[in-house]
């Protein structure tokens, strides 16, 4: 049996950040993780280069039943604080669009930084250690793993969400919360590609790989102007991943296929300047040709010279392409999702320390709680911020 001040379940972004902070405060800290390697999601994130934060992070970039919950932690540990940390370690990184920061070489560089911080702070990281059960004892908690058992004063649950089961995702965090009578909100796969109904899959067969700039809007009015990507299963790309967090089964999404144009004006201009040319050939200068061909086959785009379009036809075509409606069949689910929406209800936790209001010494941080960021480095920033706040409090 091993005794420690702080036991952290999960050597992911949130757990490792929390561990280093607590260690620097002189606490004895052990992190247990069932994986063979630490921070496996950091390693695969951002296509192997990890989009580790977003310079424009603000509480508005998060979904949570209590929109105020993340404010305190995000303000006490900002994107700039994390940038300062990686700068001290000499990480090479670059800025992409929309405030996103990525490692130049490999996400492994970031994992090395987290592990170095843990080493400097005297943290013990025990891998291949699966937590099997947790019990409350007089002065803290007893935790049994497949290897040994631990006694700790503070128990931090940083076990993540349900995405990517093959990378060790498990529901243990939710189970521990429920064991101690904390409410867990329904979990849903988010930042995830859409699958399409059979008839749409047939219509778009052959479009796989086509990407175009759009503005996608959900039924609740949230919209993102980014690319969509046709895949052999359905629709993906950043705009689709973003909107998936706001989409619910049975709803439609509206896609402005030409967000940079006023199509009815363009069509009228074409009529006066290039009247003999066909509608489809002209539209193929704005949209991918294969996609235009699908719309011709559907009868949406008339196969005739543009001068033959009458005013109602111009309006109808413009409305259609500016507000293309698509009703997804579902999503690809946890297998490919980047995050889990829902989780431990933030009403159960202190927004300053992340400690359970009901259960002294029990903390939840990172993705296991009901705080879900947009695509773009926001999820890691919440891991750093919640890990930091909790590490100061345990
Ligand atoms: P996790 O990283 O999931 O860590 C939890 C740990 O707990 C795991 O290591 C797991 O092995 C361990 N664990 C679980 N159960 C047990 C148990 N019973 N016993 C012991 N250990 C256990 N976010 C961004 O901000 N930027 C990106 O570029 C980005 N890209 C992503 C790409 C992909 C493909 C995916 C899937 C996600 C991406 N995300 C990204 C989201 C981000 O990875 C997560 O939000 C973040 O990793 C959550 O960190 P965490 O520490 O809360 O949990």
Automatic annotation (TrEMBL):
Keywords assigned by UniProt, alphabetized: FAD, Flavoprotein
Keyword flag Flavoprotein: yes
Gene3D superfamilies linked to this entry: FAD/NAD(P)-binding domain, HI0933 insert domain-like, Translation factors
This protein's record includes keyword Flavoprotein: yes
Domain RsdA/BaiN/AoA(So)-like insert: 189-339
Domain RsdA/BaiN/AoA(So)-like Rossmann fold-like stretches: 5-392
Lineage: superkingdom: Bacteria
Cofactors (names): FAD
PANTHER family assigned to the protein according to its UniProt record, in alphabetical order: OS12G0638800 PROTEIN
Protein known as: NAD(P)/FAD-dependent oxidoreductase
Species the sequence originates in: Colwellia demingiae
Lineage: Bacteria, Pseudomonadati, Pseudomonadota, Gammaproteobacteria, Alteromonadales
């Amino acid at each position: 049996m091993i005794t420690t001040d702080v036991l952290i379940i999960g050597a992911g972004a949130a757990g490792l950040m929390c561990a280093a902070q607590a260690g620097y405060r002189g606490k004895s800290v052990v992190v247990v993780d069932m994986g063979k390697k630490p921070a496996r999601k950091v390693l695969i994130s951002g296509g192997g280069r990890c989009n580790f934060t977003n310079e424009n992070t603000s509480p508005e970039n998060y979904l949570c039943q209590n929109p105020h919950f993340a404010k305190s932690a995000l303000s006490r540990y900002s994107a700039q604080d994390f940038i300062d940390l990686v700068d001290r370690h000499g990480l090479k990184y670059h800025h992409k669009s929309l405030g996103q920061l990525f490692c130049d070489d490999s996400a492994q560089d970031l994992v090395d930084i987290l592990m170095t911080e843990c080493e400097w702070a005297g943290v013990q990281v025990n891998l291949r250690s699966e937590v099997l059960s947790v019990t409350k004892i007089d002065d803290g908690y007893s935790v049994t793993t497949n290897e040994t058992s631990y006694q700790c004063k503070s128990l931090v649950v940083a076990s993540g969400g349900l995405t990517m089961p093959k990378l060790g995702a498990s529901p243990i965090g939710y189970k521990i919360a429920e064991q101690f009578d904390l409410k867990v909100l329904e979990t849903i796969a988010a930042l995830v590609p859409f699958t399409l109904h059979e008839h749409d899959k047939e219509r778009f067969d052959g479009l796989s790989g086509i990407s175009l700039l759009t503005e996608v809007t959900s039924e609740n009015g949230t919209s993102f102007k980014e690319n969509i990507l046709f895949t052999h299963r359905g629709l993906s790309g950043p705009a689709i991943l973003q909107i998936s967090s706001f989409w619910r089964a049975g709803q439609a999404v509206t896609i402005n296929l030409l967000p940079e144009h006023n199509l009815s004006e363009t069509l009228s201009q074409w009529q006066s300047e290039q009247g003999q040319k066909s509608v489809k050939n002209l539209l193929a200068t704005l949209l991918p040709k294969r996609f235009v061909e699908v719309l011709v086959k559907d009868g949406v785009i008339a196969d005739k010279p543009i001068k033959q379009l009458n005013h109602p036809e111009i309006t109808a075509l413009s409305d259609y392409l500016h507000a293309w409606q698509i009703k997804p069949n579902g999503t690809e689910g946890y297998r490919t999702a980047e995050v889990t929406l829902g989780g431990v209800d933030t009403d159960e936790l202190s927004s300053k320390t992340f400690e359970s209001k009901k259960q002294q010494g029990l903390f939840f941080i990172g993705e296991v709680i009901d705080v879900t960021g947009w695509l773009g480095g926001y999820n890691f920033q919440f891991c750093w911020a919640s890990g930091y706040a909790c590490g100061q409090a345990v």
